[in-house]
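WARN retry 2 of 3 for item q-0093 after timeout on previous attempt; input resubmitted unchanged.
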Amino acid sequence: MKINYIHSQQISGEGLADSAYNAVKTVASAILKPDLSINQLYPKEQHGILKLPSGKYAYSNYMGPGTRLDIRVPRGDVGLTPIDKESEAHDLRYNLLHKDAKSKEEAMNLARQADNKFNQKIDEFRKNKSEPEINLKQAELIKLKVFLEKNKALHDLSYKFTGPDNEKQESPELDQLYRRELNKLEQQGYGQYERYNPFYYWF
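OK item q-0093 returned
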């Protein structure tokens, strides 16, 4: 059963948030000088700039809003770092949940579970020192979103983000591809944490 009213919620200040992001992105790009030969963004992709193991900087394939999963996944784009791979898993969960959920409440619960998995994995990356701090800080913006949701500041932001984008391709074949890709990432440990804490979201 597909939910058709996910985009009904409007978020006050969304345009202001986009403007702030674009300003930060412009400054960060000027300072970090991402290597465009590694990756270039599609229109509306608002991705972070990752420090790679080589020491170079590049726009992420998946970390950040607006990812064109319908292009990147069929093309075989892989995450550039562990955080980018975890971000792909997070994006896939969000894409699939509006197809799997039978109600708004179930969709919100699945969105929170996806955020929970992402946040715990980021903590694990910090503990294991498997990512540079600059990458971790950008990924932790998801935690800010969860905090704002808990305080009802953005009116079900996760639920709004789960809706279909008319500019992106939707098909049963893509759904199957996304599920296979998510299963592969989970088998590699992305979205699976060292020790499950069922109360993580609430504290």
